[in-house]
Each structure stands twice: as structure tokens, then as C-alpha cells.
Automatic annotation (TrEMBL):
Name of the coding gene: nudC
Catalytic activity: a 5'-end NAD(+)-phospho-ribonucleoside in mRNA + H2O = a 5'-end phospho-adenosine-phospho-ribonucleoside in mRNA + beta-nicotinamide D-ribonucleotide + 2 H(+)
Matches recorded under InterPro entries: NAD-cap_RNA_hydrolase_NudC (IPR050241), NADH_PPase-like_N (IPR015375), NudC-like_C (IPR049734), NUDIX_hydrolase-like_dom_sf (IPR015797), NUDIX_hydrolase_CS (IPR020084), NUDIX_hydrolase_dom (IPR000086), Znr_NADH_PPase (IPR015376)
Protein name as it appears in the record: NAD(+) diphosphatase
Residues annotated as domain Nudix hydrolase: 157-279
């Protein structure tokens, strides 16, 4: 059975307030809101308080904290409460919980906040200077845009679309493995989209590059924001021509699997590496299994 729960990082409860957030007065009022909360990250991981819980403070309590630039970044409004995020200066606090582990354990709504916070703060960490002229960027009131005071260029948070797909033919599918994965682990194929191609074309190109087979039909299934650091995983199931596989250098191996073999793999210890609702890879595999 496909896991009925939404994928992690999807169905965010946040209202991003896109029409209001560029207004400095509006953002200031959200910061002054008595319930306003700030989620704190440290080196891309979840900062934790002395009890080991996610480090969430009131907005006014951040004044004495060693925040990295640009300070508070507006996440959105959740159940009437404004939420912000901020990065603590590297090394200013003990290391927290690895982000991936924390996200797997988090309640679904909170995981959406965590993912948005990680992507936005990672973007800020890599966009101190204007990519056009090299001057130092200035954040807009909510931290959702950077303006270059020298050349006037506006910089917006990045999202990098990637295709992720499970190729199949007849009653078998193809999964690959990277050398860095746990021994015996196999999963879907994936790669970044390139300028000038559609989702279907990216799926066909990546499949050809990674296993040397031709996509006959690509079917979109679902997508998932993936905050490592700011991908959008576009999930497909791809019918391919049956034949020998030619794994490229990114893959240590690629193999044809029957449904029985896939089930055996994902009912083994391997399952913990791809929990059912955490990764779209597992969701695509489960979707295909259920069609058999
Ligand atoms: Zn500039």
C-alpha cells in the first residue's frame, strides 16, 4: 500500500503572505506580534535547546542571540501566528540535531516550516554579494528578496528543479545505487533539469545518461520540496525500452528488479533509509508496486 500520509515538506500550513511581506511596516508588526516565533538553525541543522527540543524562541528574545546575517527571515503565518527563522552564527552554540534526522521525526506541519527555513537560510548564506557586480546585497524587510544597492539587481530565493524517476518495462523496474549508499541499497534515478528542456525531456535525458535506455512514456506522479539545499523533486514513473543497462559514472550499479525483489528489499533493513512518507523516491516505488 502507498503510505496515505502526505510526503514530508509538502502541504505546508504556512501562509507565505506574498502580497504583504515586502511592506516594512507590515513585517515590523509581525515581529512585534506577542506570539511571533523564530525557528533557529545552526550550520544548516536544527539548533536545539537545553532539553534537546527544536530551538524556537519568541521574536523579541532573539535580540541577544548571536544571529548570522540577515537576522530574522519571514517564513509565513501559521494559525494566526507569524513565524520567522534565523541562523545562529557557526560555532556559537553546540551542534544540534542533523536536519534530515530531525525532519524525519518532526510532526508534518512543523517539518514544512523546517524545510522552508533551511532553504531560505542556505540561500542567504550563499548570496551575501551581488552575482552581477559583487557589491554587498541588502535584504528586503522580510528577507525574501535581496537588493543590490550598486547595480539595482534583485535576487530571489532559488528553487532548483530536479527530475526523479522510476523506469520500468513489463513487470520489472530499474533501480540504481551510488557508491556512497549503504551496501545493498537501490533507489530511483534523479538529476537536475537543464535550461531549455521540459520535465519529460529531462526525464528522458537523465534516464539515457544514467542507464542507457530510452524513455517511451513519462508519467508525472507527484512533487516534493527537498531542502538540501533547495531542490524541487519532480517525481515520474517512466516506461522504457527493455534491454541491457549501461550505468554511468554517477552510479555504482543499476539493475532490473521484479516486484517481489523490490518488496523484499524495502521490507528489509533498507527501509529505514527511505521511510515511506519521507522521500519521493520511496513514494514512486510504492506507487509502481501497487500497480502490479
Ligand atoms: Zn549588483
Amino acid at each position: 500500500m502507498t503510505d496515505p500520509r502526505p510526503l514530508t515538506f509538502t502541504r505546508s500550513p504556512l501562509d507565505f503572505s506574498g502580497l504583504e511581506r515586502a511592506d516594512a511596516d507590515w513585517i515590523a508588526a509581525r515581529r512585534e506580534h506577542p506570539e511571533a516565533r523564530v525557528l533557529l538553525l545552526h550550520k544548516g541543522d536544527l539548533a536545539t535547546d537545553s532539553a534537546g527540543e527544536p530551538f524556537v524562541v519568541r521574536a523579541r528574545e532573539t535580540r541577544d542571540l548571536p544571529l548570522d546575517r540577515p537576522g530574522l527571515v519571514f517564513l509565513g503565518v501559521w494559525n494566526g501566528v507569524p513565524w520567522f527563522c534565523a541562523a545562529l552564527k557557526p560555532g556559537s552554540v553546540p551542534d544540534g540535531v542533523p536536519f534530515r534526522l530531525a525532519a524525519m521525526k518532526a510532526e508534518a506541519d512543523f517539518a514544512c516550516l523546517m524545510g522552508r527555513a533551511r532553504s531560505l537560510l542556505s540561500w542567504h548564506g550563499r548570496r551575501k554579494f551581488c552575482s552581477n557586480c559583487g557589491a554587498e546585497n541588502r535584504p528586503d524587510p522580510g528577507g525574501l528578496k535581496l537588493d543590490c544597492p550598486a547595480c539595482g539587481m534583485e535576487h530571489f530565493p532559488r528553487v532548483d528543479p530536479s527530475v526523479i524517476m522510476l523506469p520500468h518495462a513489463g513487470d520489472r523496474c530499474v533501480m540504481g545505487r551510488q557508491a556512497s549508499w549503504p551496501p545493498g541499497m537501490y533507489a530511483t534515478l534523479a538529476g537536475f533539469m537543464e535550461p531549455g528542456e521540459t520535465i519529460e525531456e529531462a526525464c528522458a535525458r537523465e534516464t539515457k545518461e544514467e542507464i542507457g535506455r530510452t524513455v517511451l512514456k513519462a508519467e508525472y506522479i507527484e512533487s516534493q520540496p527537498w531542502p538540501f539545499p533547495s531542490s524541487l523533486m519532480i517525481g515520474l514513473i517512466a516506461e522504457i525500452d527493455e534491454g541491457e543497462l549501461f550505468p554511468d559514472d554517477d552510479l555504482e550499479d543499476a539493475r532490473w528488479f521484479t516486484r517481489e525483489e523490490v518488496r523484499a528489499l524495502y521490507e528489509s533493513e533498507m527501509a529505514k533509509w527511505a521511510p515511506p512518507n519521507f522521500s519521493i523516491s520511496r513514494r514512486l516505488i510504492d506507487t509502481w508496486l501497487n500497480r502490479g
